[in-house]
Design a protein that fits this description.
The structure is a homodimer of 228-residue chains. With 228 residues, the first copy, chain A, is α/β, with parallel strands linked by helices. Helix content of chain A is 30%, strand content 29%. The complex binds adenosine-5'-triphosphate (2 copies) and magnesium ion (2 copies).
């Protein structure tokens, strides 16, 4: 499904190089449920962006569904992403001055998804994340932090993707909403969806089936979860 | 120090009224350390914005340092806020394309704070929140989520405010960074700073001296913390 092969990501700020991810190889098969943990600044979001084809590595290869992605055009990247992957950004990245339901429906308006009645699918996704329909026409700045986070999750699942990549999906949620979102991820995984989520909460990570620990841009540990 | 008197906050979206905070009276004395908890969407951020003079109530009064604030001009609001209050937004609200250290120094460039060498004070605040000086010249989008959160906290404390209002200050932090920030808040409070923080994590709330529970825009419980 998703594979990083000796991937390095190096940034240049003001001429000074900084290595965020160093020589990481990671294979995630279809149907897996993986949590990525690690200290702040250790490279978790960078890794997730590379897996989600949102960024390209400085060195190494990213493979998706058995194919290398290095030589794809921007358009092909966008098409693959839109068709196969749902991404929940750590900072939500919702469109301002755009209703919650329109933000959710946005991925349906591209590519093969030109489905009938996107607003019906979007309303259903809104309900799956536990948000009241009365909030559907609020703009992001008219929603609470936790409500915005749930809109971001709804947008990631509205296209029924094969893979959901979620960056701290419960960071702004109280314990009840957290349970609802973990229940949603579990039921997606039961249907065969590959779920990869970054979290710093051990309780949340225990709901996955495998935990990858990152430190200073390297994989420190990679173990199955025993008791769930 | 800070007081809400029968405060209500009502929003109008598309002509439909929504009451976020209903008839709340809350008094916070100088030197207190208060946590505000409650479900997602219950009105915590709205309450904090009202206490921080970032928003005005639809009904009721907000008092600061024994003075009503309703008839203040925008300029007087801004001066009071800048002199007395440090605010950590739930979504950070850092200026894009502006270095971390410049974001932190910003409050020093207004009002009475025209202090000598703002960059020295900003660098000190950066270190107090546990961020490496090598990140000082990174823009917000060149920092991880947890690093951005710590920049937002540094900006709130750089002016040595009398009150720190923090909205989910540890939401994006791993357990070690969380401990560092709680230690910082404790040492500020030991020096007499009034700290009010919104959190959905019971472990974090237990570090305060008083917990106010909100539900559907009302105060449900308000109790001192026994074992800290
Ligand atoms: N500008 C606005 N217009 C309309 N409704 C709003 C606006 N701002 C907030 N709300 C609503 O007010 C309620 C309270 O929002 P608030 O941000 O205070 O919640 P919160 O307790 O901080 O939640 P969270 O834990 O998710 O951050 C929510 O239902 C939200 O949708
Ligand atoms: N565009 C960039 N330019 C320079 N450095 C960057 C850039 N983006 C990220 N970094 C650095 O790369 C490192 C890894 O960042 P990343 O966002 O992957 O961390 P993270 O593990 O997700 O942390 P957090 O838990 O705080 O979200 C950090 O030290 C960060 O400062
Ligand atoms: Mg991150
Ligand atoms: Mg909030």
């Amino acid at each position: 499904m998703l594979e990083l092969r000796r991937v390095t990501k190096r940034y240049q700020t003001g001429g000074v190089p900084f290595v965020a991810v160093r020589g990481v190889s990671l294979r995630i098969d279809a149907g897996e449920y993986v949590a990525i943990m690690g200290p702040s600044g250790s490279g978790k979001s960078t890794l997730l962006h590379l897996l989600g084809l949102l960024d390209v590595p400085t060195e190494g290869e990213v493979w998706l569904a058995g194919q290398p992605t290095r030589h794809l055009s921007d358009k092909e990247f966008a098409r693959l992403r839109n068709e196969k992957i749902g991404f929940v950004f750590q900072n939500f990245q919702l469109l301002p001055r755009t209703a919650a339901i329109e933000n959710i429906a946005l991925p349906l308006l591209y590519g093969r998804h030109r489905k009938a009645r996107p607003e019906v699918l979007a309303a259903r996704a809104l309900q799956r994340v536990g948000l009241d329909l009365s909030k559907a026409w609020n703009w992001p700045n008219q929603l609470s932090g936790g409500q915005q986070q749930r809109v971001a999750i709804a947008r990631a699942i509205v296209t029924d993707p094969e893979v959901v990549l979620a960056d701290e999906p419960t960071g702004n949620l109280d314990s009840r909403s957290t349970e609802e979102i973990l229940g949603l991820f579990q039921s997606l995984n039961d249907q065969g969806v590959t779920v990869v989520m970054v979290t710093h909460e051990p309780y949340v990570a225990q709901h996955a089936k495998r935990i990858v620990q990152i430190r200073d841009g390297r994989v420190e540990r990679d173990e199955p979860v025993h008791e769930r």
